[in-house]
Amino acid sequence: MSASRGLFIVFEGLDGAGKSTQADLLLAELRRAGQAALLLREPGGTPLGDRLREILLGRDGALGLEPLSELLLYEASRCQLVRQVIRPALARGQTVISGRYVLSSLAYQGYGRGLALELIERLNREATGGLEPELTFWIDLAPEVGLARLRTAPDRMERSGLDFYRRVAAGYRELAQGQAQIIRLDGERSQNELARQVAAQLRRLSRRANGDKARS
Ligand code: TYD
């Protein structure tokens, strides 16, 4: 990591897990500390990405999206976002916080829809040019609890049913196993408690980065 490159932090988890609340809290915390930070979410964040978001999360059941088409659209949105927004922001030294990234495609289109994980990994690599976050916070929550928390009418993904969400949840669990850069947060804890854990992990990360700098 070069001294001037910003940090890339991702929040992952099921719909209703509380990702956007934690992302908002982290953004506010960083800005209070005087750091330049940018908050994004997938799909979306570019002109094409926003159009793709409407297709992917709209309520138009008549589209009849095939699972592979769905994957390709999420990847197209990610490709635009990484090249046009995330990489330039990191290069300017900004911290980038994203609600969702490559793990979402593996969990939802892989474990949820049943597409091959190798294919998704390949597309993730191509779409991102191999850009990996420094930390991914995975907010782990039972699908029943997450779905019950949703306040708005279900979007196209949220209409996929409880069994789908159970597969996605199991997918996150498997994907996180043995991955030190994926931090599990217990989605049943209060938002304040989760925010404290996020802040502590970030302090640890910057201590490590500063240590590396001092050694080099
Ligand atoms: P959104 O309303 O942003 O949900 P949340 O606030 O929970 O992030 O919708 C994003 C939806 O898109 C969510 O259902 C997960 C799904 N998704 C995928 O299936 N694959 C992906 O690669 C991404 C980025 C999102």
Q: Can you offer a commentary on this structure?
A:
The protein has 216 residues and is α/β, with parallel strands linked by helices. The protein is 56% helix and 12% strand. It is built from 8 helices and 5 strands; from the N terminus they run βαβααβααβααβα. It has a 5-stranded parallel sheet with strand order 2-3-1-4-5, sandwiched between helices. The longest helix has 25 residues, at 67-91. It is globular, with a radius of gyration of 17 Å. The mean pLDDT is 94. Thymidine-5'-diphosphate is lined by residues 15, 19-20, 41-43, 57, 74, 99-100, 104-105, 108-109, 157.
List its salient traits.
single chain, 216 residues, alpha/beta, 5-stranded parallel beta sheet, globular, binds thymidine-5'-diphosphate
Summary of the model, kept short:
The chain has 8 helices and 5 strands; from the N terminus they run E-H-E-H-H-E-H-H-E-H-H-E-H.
Structural class of the helices, strands and pairings?
alpha/beta
Question: What percent of residues adopt helix (DSSP H or I)?
Answer: 55-70%
**What is the element string, with H for helices and E for strands?**
EHEHHEHHEHHEH
Please give the order of strands in the largest beta sheet: 2-3-1-4-5
Bound molecules: thymidine-5'-diphosphate
What shape does the CA trace take?
globular
Count of DSSP strands: 5
Distance between the termini: 11 Å
Main beta-sheet annotation: 5 strands, parallel
Uncertain parts: none
Query: How large is the share of residues in beta strands?
Result: 5-15%
> Average pLDDT, to the nearest integer?
94
Q: Work out the radius of gyration.
A: 17 Å
Number of helices: 8
